[in-house]
Amino acid sequence: xxxxxxxxxxxxxxxxxxxxxxxxxxxxxxxxxxxxxxxxxxxxxxxxxxxxxxxxxxxxxxxxxxxxxxxxxxxxxxxxxxxxxxxxxxxxxxxxxxxxxxxxxxxxxxxxxxxxxxxxxxxxxxxxxxxxxxxxxxxxxxxxxxxxxxxxxxxxxxxxxxxxxxxxxxxxxxxxxxxxxxxxxxxxxxxxxxxxxxxxxxxxxxxxxxxxxxxxxxxxxxxxxxxxxxxxxxxxxxxxxxxxxxxxxxxxxxxxxxxxxxxxxxxxxxxxxxxxxxxxxxxxxxxxxxxxxxxxxxxxxxxxxxxxxxxxxxxxxxxxxxxxxxxxxxxxxxxxxxxxxxxxxxxxxxxxxxxxxxxxxxxxxxxxxxxxxxxxxxxxxx
Length: 382
Known about the structure:
With 382 residues, this protein is an alpha+beta fold.
């Protein structure tokens, strides 16, 4: 990678595009490095996918890599289905649409005052979708939980239904931006239940639904991944299960995962490593990448790349251990910059720029950072 950067004096834009494409691929090996484990079973549940990857002595076992689309976006679609199936249905009105609201009792229809927009200043569909996704994210962070004691539609060791037990748990109240509020009891467990049990999936209500297929649940992925690796290393992988990804921060996720693993592999020693810090869980691959680049043996990899491309080590003047940190902060900046400069939340006005999409901003910022690095490296080479 360093030699590609060094040789990119004539085509920085093309190289930055290639780098962006490379770094958006799942770097699950670095997830295990962030946890300090050379051998691990990495379970990464992000926004768009859920993946299970076995790693042995720092090497990725490609035969055991399995993925499914049941990530954070799928859980958001399940939350939408939960709102649609409620009686009455719960509309999603983002904050920027509400001018004022009147306090109402729980379950009572909302009485908001909506903002009016002048002709030509109305919000478009992509901006509203972004604001609705933020509202769904807030709901997932505060209300949605994972039932930790087996399948929600199953029974416990005493024969009592888990659903009946869930109904007896205290409800949690959530207030929407328009003032509508409702206590959520056992319903808050249904949104994420299909990640572990496909049969519990709610009917999708979106125009582009994510339909779960057989074998895409997390227990089935783990079973499929371990069945494709050597029998002798399975106990080692089960004793070093690394959980990462922002969607794994749902309350009760690690407890449910531990219970499912004990059912799948009784008698095995199972140990789950799940950092409690939110940033360590979300950015595990970036933290692991910075650790990997700081190792002394990483220079040997640079020498190998140099010999592969016929370059000398003098062509690599850039301090590469800091490259993952630059990539990390560029991604962090894209996550913090939620709105473009031409968006006014009070008026709901936006200019003709599609940069408010998170993926687009991340690509743009990455291009800018990588081009600056490439330009600086080219000057040093000269």
